[in-house]
Amino acid sequence: MALDWADLLGALALLLVIEGLMPFANPAGLKRALARMLELGDRELRIAGFLTMLTGVVLLFLIRS
């Protein structure tokens, strides 16, 4: 199964839509969330990032298989 550029660009476009939802819908909530993230240590942020990436990989595998 070959990667189609349209799929990659579509995924990027969807990422941008999802990233823009929070600041559009609840800017004050986003500011609170970002302020809370500043209080977290590097280890906690790395764990959260790893778990987010792992979830994405598993979802992508399930969708594509």
Described by its quaternary structure, the protein is: single chain
Give the biggest sheet.
none
Mean pLDDT: 93
Number of structurally distinct domains? 1
What is the approximate shape? Answer: flat
Derived from helix and strand composition plus strand pairing, the structural class reads mainly alpha
Specify the number of helices.
3
Beta-strand residue fraction: under 5%
Write up this protein.
The chain has helices spanning 5-25, 27-39, 42-64. Helix 1 (5-25) packs across helix 2 (27-39). The model has no long low-confidence stretch (mean pLDDT 93). With 65 residues, the protein is mainly α. It has one domain (7-64). The chain is flat and about 40 Å long.
What labels describe this entry?
65 residues; 3 helices; mainly alpha; 88% helix
Briefly summarize what is shown.
By secondary structure, this protein is an all-alpha fold.
